[in-house]
């Protein structure tokens, strides 16, 4: 069972995808709608490897603390490992 905030976010992303004709929002909504065991899990090292300086990174899942960031990034994720808190 998903919480109400997550369900609301998924609905808003799907709505925004249709209104703005942006497939990315629908893809993120679809990924967030998966069960927690099937959501994406990404290490900082992978984000650092593929993102460019000043990028905005969206992770529709959990960000783990393995690795380091050497760039200034904005990361939006559903969840972060406890190390970040």
TrEMBL record:
Cellular component terms per the entry's GO annotation: ribonucleoprotein complex; ribosome
Q: Which UniProt keywords apply?
A: Ribonucleoprotein, Ribosomal protein
The yes or no answer to whether the keyword Cell inner membrane is present is: no
Identify this protein by name.
50S ribosomal protein L18e
**Flavoprotein: is it a keyword of this entry?**
no
Q: Show the NCBIfam families listed in the entry.
A: PRK04005.1
- The scientific name of the source species is marine sediment metagenome
Which Gene3D superfamilies does UniProt cross-reference here? Answer: 3.100.10.10
């Amino acid at each position: 069972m998903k919480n109400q905030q997550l369900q609301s976010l998924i609905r808003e992303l799907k709505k925004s995808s249709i209104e703005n004709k942006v497939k990315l929002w629908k893809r993120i909504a679809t990924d967030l709608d998966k069960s927690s065991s099937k959501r994406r899990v990404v290490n900082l090292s992978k984000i650092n490897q593929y993102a460019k300086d000043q990028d905005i990174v969206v992770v529709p899942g959990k960000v783990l603390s393995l690795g380091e960031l050497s760039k200034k990034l904005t990361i939006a994720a559903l969840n972060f490992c406890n190390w970040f808190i």
